[in-house]
Amino acid sequence: MKNFDAGHVPLRMAKAKELLGVIDRNFGTLAFCRRYLDRLGCKQYLLGLKNLCDSGLVQPYPPLVDVKGSFTAQYEHTFILRPTCKEVLSRGDDY
User: Fold this and answer.
1) Nearest 5°: phi and psi at 38?
2) How is residue 58 annotated by DSSP?
3) Any residues with CB less than 8 A from the CB of 7 and at least 6 apart, and which?
């Protein structure tokens, strides 16, 4: 996730500058994962991503982990999965 409070940091690596542009255009300050960068067609970005993390422009987060063998996901809403239906609890007027 891009660090909103980070000031101007001079980047010397061209790949880091290019990757920061991709992150700004597609994610802003929203969290993203490497798979999203792959889907956008980014190639050979790992060194640039490490440079962005080391400079403090991007904040690394560990993956979501639950019980071994289970699936974990992050959503914008809170919902309950029932055997016969799905109920959205957090849906408001703005959705």
Assistant:
1) -60, -45
2) B
3) none
pLDDT in tens, the chain (95 residues): 777 777 788 888 899 999 999 999 998 888 888 889 999 999 999 999 999 999 988 888 877 777 887 777 766 778 888 999 888 887 666 55
Give the rounded distance of the alpha carbon of 35 from its chain centre: 9
In this structure, are residues 27 and 2 in contact, taking their beta carbons and an 8 Å threshold? yes
Supply 26's token pair: 């597609």
- Alpha carbon of residue 59 to chain centroid: 10
Taking a C-beta distance cutoff of 8 angstroms, is the pair 37, 45 a contact?
yes
Looking up tokens 């996730």 gives 1
Helix (H) or strand (E) holding 81: strand 79-81
